[in-house]
Design brief:
Length: about 240
């Protein structure tokens, strides 16, 4: 692999969907700093919106102001810990916010390397040469059952427990994110999304939509539109990042 400098472009859309009264998803990104984040909040009243916004704000603030004294994964773990503690402390101060939390998936880039970080069931995908692959692993009850061989993928899609996540930011005093490191090449595409997208659309369908040669903004619009047409049962957020030569 060559050492030529790569550049990145990004686009994102967040949509309320067709069934929910409000949007509890949040996202943020900085191409300049190589930081991209999607969060899906949960909790009564406006608690989910607060949790997801707090997480995005804290992670973006900390990772766009790094001084380089630590590695990017180290700073990412610290940012997740701070975001978790911020949400947890805020919930403890208010009965109305008790139990609030949020999932998170983030992409961090530095030259020819990338890191996907997740807590919960918001997903990070990597696409190369027309093939889309889920990199992150859902922190959900049905995913654990699938891994243990107790149910298969088809049963997981129908399970009444598919909304139960086993790890989230803000619901406990501490949380451990998963971190996946990848080498990147020009032409690579990353998709970060909330489960409002992946509950409605299969990976194969996502791959077919993303294989169309179109600007990232248009691809985001197509993804959200397809999820709404399939039911739009939840908030839908997608963030696309492309590696350019």
């Amino acid at each position: 692999m060559g050492t030529a400098v790569v550049h990145f472009t990004a686009a994102a859309i967040s949509d309320r969907g067709r069934k929910r009264p409000s949007n509890e998803d949040a996202f943020g990104y900085s191409v300049e700093h190589g930081v991209y984040v999607v969060c899906d909040g949960m909790g009564g009243a406006a608690a989910g919106e607060i949790a997801s916004s707090l997480a995005v704000d804290e992670v973006m603030k900390l990772l766009t102001s790094r001084d380089g004294s630590n590695t990017l994964p180290e700073d990412a773990e610290h940012a997740v810990a701070v975001a978790n503690q911020t949400i947890f402390a805020r919930a403890e101060r208010s009965n109305k916010l008790s139990g609030m939390g949020t999932t998170m998936v983030a992409l961090l880039t530095s030259e020819r390397r990338a890191w996907l970080i997740n807590v919960g069931d918001s997903r990070g995908y990597h696409m190369r040469n027309g093939h889309l692959e889920q990199v992150t692993v859902d922190h959900s009850l049905v995913e654990e059952q699938v891994r243990l061989g107790r149910i298969d993928r088809a049963e997981a899609l129908r399970s009444p427990l598919r909304n139960v996540i086993t790890r989230a930011l803000g619901t406990q005093s501490s949380v451990t994110p998963d971190i996946f490191e990848l080498e990147i090449e020009p032409g690579d595409l990353f998709l970060l999304c909330s489960d409002g997208l992946t509950r409605e659309l299969s990976d194969a369908f996502l791959e077919s939509l993303l294989s169309v040669g179109a600007p990232l903004e248009e691809l985001c619009t197509r993804l959200v539109s397809a999820a709404n047409q399939a039911g739009g049962h939840d908030n839908i957020t997608c963030l696309l990042v492309r590696v350019d030569a």
